[in-house]
Amino acid sequence: MRSSLLLSATALSLGLASFTLYPHTPPAPLPVDSVADLAADPNTTDEVPKDNKLVIYQMMVRLFGNQKTTNKPFGSAAENGVGKFNDINDKALQELKKLGASHVWYTGVLEHATMADYSKLGIALDDADVVKGRAGSPYAVKDYYDVDPDLAVDPKKRMQEFEALVQRTHKNGLKLLIDFIPNHVARSYKSDAKPAGVVDLGQKDDKTKAFAPSNNFYYLPGKSLVVPKGNDPLGAAIKGPKEDGKYTETPAKATGNDVFSEAPKIDDWFETTKLNYGVDYQNGRKTYFEPVPDTWLKMRDILVYWAKKDVDGFRCDVAEMVPVDFWAWVIPEVKKVKPDIIFLAEAYNPKEYRKYLEQGKFDFLYDKVGLYDGLRRLMRGEGKTEDITKVWSEESRGFSSNMLRFLENHDEQRIASKDFAGDPLRAIPAMTVSATLGSGPVMIYFGQEVGEPGRGAEGFSGEDGRTTIFDYWGVPEHQKWLNGGKFDGGKLSLQQKQLRDFYSRLLNLCSSHEALRRGRFYELQDANNLAKEYNDKDLYAYLRYTDNKRVLVVVNFSATQTYVPTLKVSPAAWKLMGLDPLRNQFTYTDVLNGRAVSNTSRVTLPPLSAVVLEIEPLK
């Protein structure tokens, strides 16, 4: 079937690609000897992909449902507002499901150190000297067995409100992850909600010893903590509770980022203390894993507690700062209770990836240092497409199905911020690669889909291109989609609606299309790099295919240049797909952008565009 296509100005504004019809030219004849050896072909690997195409929507619960727009720097919860568990209602969840999400990562659920006063509930008031931000960091956990009272309409019933959110999430056909922060806790850690019979962290520690295998913390005997000078968590004009630089801790404990000094620096994780998993850091990192350390047992019990509350997985904070031996032991222990629960590791060392998957038993790892960093450079006009090749051919070779791909999360700068790309449309080619390069999970961060730029000095967080995790705040562009709790995008601009539509089409496609869920991968840079219409510095192309379905993905990272290449599939790739271009002609349908069928692989790629071409033999 032939069809002529018009590209509207609206589509052009989003960098969508179009077809132009030209006479069909079949690829070069297939070699007659045999199908290429996958292991030897430099354009692919012999990995058998696993169908792990989770689509994770990460949200800061504190911010997601907040409708207030005051946004006063260092503002209180009353002034700036705070989102609640109950804000995440059926309508919100249905809209996330329509967007393409299969899982929601509820970030900031556990009770953490804060400057909010909940002493009437029996929760001790924290000392501002060791709290970052008015709302506090969700990664300075104060009670592993409780949830943040800020997130409840009725703080006395906070756990019931969280449990209702779990049920509501499942009722709407979604699964949920929460954070597990195993490496460190707030200096004020004390569990008020622990089940009967649970001995609290540090309760039986021998504090006269710097290290003991049975201790939960590391100590600096004879020394007292010195709060870093210059710490001013609420700015010069406001004093937080007990903010006087005189916080006492004797003996001092080691700081969360492996600082064994009583005087951590201002840029250390000084608000946290390091947990002891049986590694003597100050004596050659000698390990004491037999008998099973007390901290291991306590952490297992915490994970099982939440598994029994029917959470579906854990995003494990700085997982590589905890011994892999612990994960190898604890993950199977938790899966005895809930076999299908997933463990996702925040990981940054490619040399350790295989160990944390195979020995450590993680289901998924962050692909930050490889794919995220490479795509970030390309989005900023600083990178090269060879960085993508390095990811699949080296860094995650053999286990790409276990790598979580993303362009935003709470730690990273917003794409639309001036600190990153300055334009949310630069995500179109990069997000297409992130979602379709492999059969592993993909993630977006709330507000990413409408181009939230993370503007403003929210307070402790400052003007850094990120959405704050430390302060009470309204997230302006996200709030336009929130639209007073209607969750209908009623206040979004036309361009924002188009951007969100792109994310929805992409995420739904990658989770529903057989070739993208579990297809093999074949890079086409070599096949195309001699064509003068194909600039491999800006363009990146690859195949994903099964026995029944195959797609050709091509993206244009250039912000200024339009390309009109005829995309070439190598003879080896045709053979691997089980297709014979000598006997068949093929149709190419852009299943990402909803373009009509064409019988040519020549496409128009405007700046910042992407196509996903489904290849079918012409019948």
From TrEMBL:
Residues 1-23 form the signal peptide. One of its GO terms (molecular function) is alpha-amylase activity. Residues 58-488 form the Glycosyl hydrolase family 13 catalytic domain. GO terms for biological process: oligosaccharide catabolic process. InterPro entries: Cyclo-malto-dextrinase_C (IPR019492), GH (IPR017853), GH13_cat_dom (IPR006047), Glyco_hydro_b (IPR013780). Keywords: Signal. SUPFAM superfamilies: (Trans)glycosidases (SSF51445), Glycosyl hydrolase domain (SSF51011). This is Alpha-amylase. It comes from Hymenobacter oligotrophus. The lineage of its organism: Bacteria, Pseudomonadati, Bacteroidota, Cytophagia, Cytophagales.
